[in-house]
Every structure is written in C-alpha cells, then in structure tokens.
Amino acid sequence: MSQTTASGRTTAQWQEKRDQFVSNGVGNGNRSMAVKGEGALLYDLNGRRFIDFAGAIGTLNVGHSHPKVVEAVKKQAEDLIHPGFNVMMYPSYIELAEKLCGLAPGDHDKKAIFLNSGAEAVENAVKIARKYTKRQGVVSFTRGFHGRTNMTMSMTSKVKPYKFGFGPFASEVYQAPFPYYYQKPAGMSNEQYDDFIINAFDDFFIASAAPETVACVVMEPVQGEGGFIIPSKRFVQHVADFCKKHGIVFVADEIQTGFARTGAYFAIEHFGAVPDLITVSKSLAAGLPLSGVIGRAEMLDAAAPGELGGTYAGSPLGCAAALAVLDIIEEEGLNQRSEEIGQIIEDQALEWKKDHAFIGEVRRLGAMAAVEIVKDPDTREPDKAKAAAIAKTANENGLLLLTAGINGNIIRFLTPLVMTDEQLAEGLAIIEAAL
C-alpha cells in the first residue's frame, strides 16, 4: 500500500479536504482513509491493517468485497446497470423477491418490494400498513431506531444525535415500552419483569393509543442502536398475538438483525412469532444500497400500481449482490458460523467481566453481541465516557469498534461472519488491552 493515492494526496491532505468540503453533520468514528477491504480486514492509505468489528454498522455479514459478490456485480454491470424496474423489468429483482419470500417465516403467501435504504424500507412498511388497514397510528418502542427520515426519526427513541433540532416530527407515532432485563427494578425476577412489561404494553393501548386506530407495530427483534437489547420470547409472542387480535400489522424490523447476524436468516425466528411484514437492508447486499419489505401478499397488494417504489429502488446491481449473498450464507454455513463467533465473544467477555467491575452485562443472540459499560455494578449507572474511550483506543490500535445504546455505554460487536478465529482472537486481544 502506498502512502498516497493516484492523485498524490496524503491522509492528512484528505482529512483537510474532508473538513473543508464534507458536511459537519456526517460523523467519522475513524479518520483513516480506507482503500481496500478483504473479508474481515480493511487497509488504509498508509498500508495499515484494521480488523473490522463494525462491518459498516452491520452491513458486511459476508465481509468486504467477497469474490462471489464482486463477480456478480461485475457481470451485472457489464450487462445492465439501471433500466428502472418500473420502466422495464429485469430478472434479478423477481428472482430475489422469490428467494426472500421463501426464506421469510410463515406459510402464508408472500410478496416483496425493493427499495434503497433501511429507512425507506420502514417508511414503505408504514405506507403498506396504513393502506391495508385504513388506519393512521404507528407504534414503535422505547430505545428503538428505525432511520433518519422524518417518519423514521419520529419512530426512533434516542434524541441526540438523531432527532435533536430536526422537528417537527410526524404525527400519530407512539412509543410503547420494551423490556431491558439488565436495567429492571432491583429484586424483580425476569418472569416478574415480563409480567410488568407485558401489562405496561397492554396499558399503553389504553393510555396512549387505541388499538383500532393503529396501523402497525414496528419492532426490532433485537434492538440495534438501542444497545443490542434482547426481549424474551414471551414478550415478542405477546406483541404478535396482540396485533393479530386487534387487526394491527406486526412489522419486524430486521435491518440490522437479518441475514445470519443472529444465527438465523431473520432474528424473529428465534422468538417463534410470525410477522406480517419484515423490513430488510444492510447485509442483504454486502454494501450496495438495497432494502426491501417482505410480507403477506394481500398487504403488499393493497397499494395500486405506482403508489410504491422509487427511481433506484431494487437496482440490478443491488439485486445481483443480494443473490450472491444468499448463496454465500448457505454455502459457507454463516448461520452456524454466527453462533460460533458469538460464543467466542461471549466466553472472552465473561472472562473480562471477572477482572473489570465496569463491565455490567454481556449479552448476545448469535454474533450480535454487546458488553454494557457501567460506573458501578450495583447501581448499573451507564458510563458513556469509558465506553467511548475503549472504542477510541481500539480504533487507534487497529480495530474498528463501535458503541451503541440510548446512553452510549454499549460496546457492540458486528464482525463479518467470514472472520477467521485468528482474526477474531487478534481483535479481542486489542479490546482486552484497551480495557
């Protein structure tokens, strides 16, 4: 790797130009300049190697530039880049819709629509639910994250940095309670806490939103930006049953949890519930912009032709990449590999917990793993500063690492699932040194 690009600029010069020409509103967790990615590794302009525990915020389950994805995108680009599906159809869109409908849980008839980003998928799920039910209300959950558009900001829980100063927000959007077992009241068992949260969820539909006015309830099966919070099977099933009873569309937001991240194609499979609609994006297309809504055929058909879509929605390049991703997950056993990676992370983090009182909890579903950093294990008070310091130190020492959580005190793991045991061990050793 050279210290300069073909333009002859150094990293410092690129950083200066970034500050001069790129919006301050765009965050940069690491100010190195990426020039090559391969599997679970990134290389910067100076030839420095980084182990990737961030995966472009959960977008690279099959890793950077997987050869099969690269080959599929190259071939597609040579044949056809963009006719616009609503202008003239092409096979990859239809083939991908068929495959995802087959993978999605439930034995009902399904259809799919493709879009560009996760926020677009959520927006369209809301549109579909409203069209189908002829209702207006939208319910998400505390600590949930669904995007940065006006509607999805309205559905998102964390004010800073996602919502602060960007209002007014969409109306008829409500946030229901969601379990957080580590932060439950002292002396309460998990079963008692489930009773408490389920009762609070039911009461919410008395105090805040009448069920007959609600079009959809949108749930992340595992909360992502909210801190990798995992609900109980009982809670998820209660929400699904409540929606069915009241004619509410139950939407599983699988944008960060999908495509082997939790050891299943969709995280909702772990909870024994069947959603009406599923939103997908991120690791679906290995880094190309692609998202979708998969769900009950009668719901996807509620909108008339032309009422859903977008100029670049379901691009041939994105669909080609996604078809390759689905093959890779199957051929390389990434659902099983996800569980293996998650277990290694959990075992190591529990060892850290013995030595560091500021590690409050270790939790995971598959390879979607998190370590909660607290000031005191008894009070469980969040320690955002320490979590940020750990992530910063890791980044300075060759490991891309992210935080999360409503209080910013969660160290989260979004490793590519093609990561080797040796790369994983090396990354964990960097975190241990940071601790």
Describe the structure.
- Pathway: Amino-acid degradation; 4-aminobutanoate degradation.
- It comes from Bacillus nakamurai.
- The protein starts with 10 loop residues before the first helix and ends with a helix.
- A hairpin with a 4-residue loop joins strand 2 and strand 3.
- The strands form 3 sheets. A 7-stranded mixed beta sheet has the order 4-10-9-8-7-5-6, with helices on both faces. The chain has a 4-stranded mixed beta sheet with strand order 1-2-3-13.
- It is globular and about 55 Å long.
- The chain is 38% helix and 16% strand.
- It has 3 domains: 35 residues, no CATH class; 263 residues, Aspartate Aminotransferase, domain 2; 64 residues, Aspartate Aminotransferase, domain 1, CATH 3.90.1150.
- The chain has 13 helices and 15 strands.
- Helix 3 runs antiparallel to helix 10 and helix 12 crosses helix 13.
- By secondary structure, it is of the alpha/beta class.
